[in-house]
Amino acid sequence: MSSKTYSLKEMAQIVGIPASTAAYYRDQHPHFFEKIATGGRHPRYSDESLEALRLVAQMVTTTESHQEIDEALSIHFTRLIEVDLTTTVQQQQHNNSNFPSIISPAEALSIVAQSMQLMSDQKIEIEALRSEVKELRELIKSSQSINDHEEYSGSDRAQENPPKKRGFCRMFGKG
Prior knowledge:
mainly alpha; Multidrug-efflux Transporter Regulator, Chain: A, Domain 2; 7 helices; 2 strands; about 0% strand
């Protein structure tokens, strides 16, 4: 990660949108805008946050839905999840009276390694699911275009061969 940070106003100027619009986009997709603590009054944002804002601004101009923008951000950027560790530990201690308050460094490393392996496995599975979703979307689009083509060619045939008149109309020339 780069050491360059930006204020929301600076990011808005770089992207070419009003600061209020940038704030709106940040509020709509808060998990993709990493706040970096600098000790100042206003939050600063990373390069990744700038790129996320740029992507949102671009996608909004193509009238994409909030959900589609969120999906695109999920594909391109890391989603931030805040966890309150003190509350989590207190809940675990309350739920399990045998919870050890101190663990050895080796045990901690083992737990971290297991967690990292689980996250790696999940990441692989997520990538596989994303590619499967992409393939299914392409399949849906291609089947829709085939159906549209069949409907169009079917309407041409209907115009070339109008339905034959029935008995009374044929005999008396009516209708």
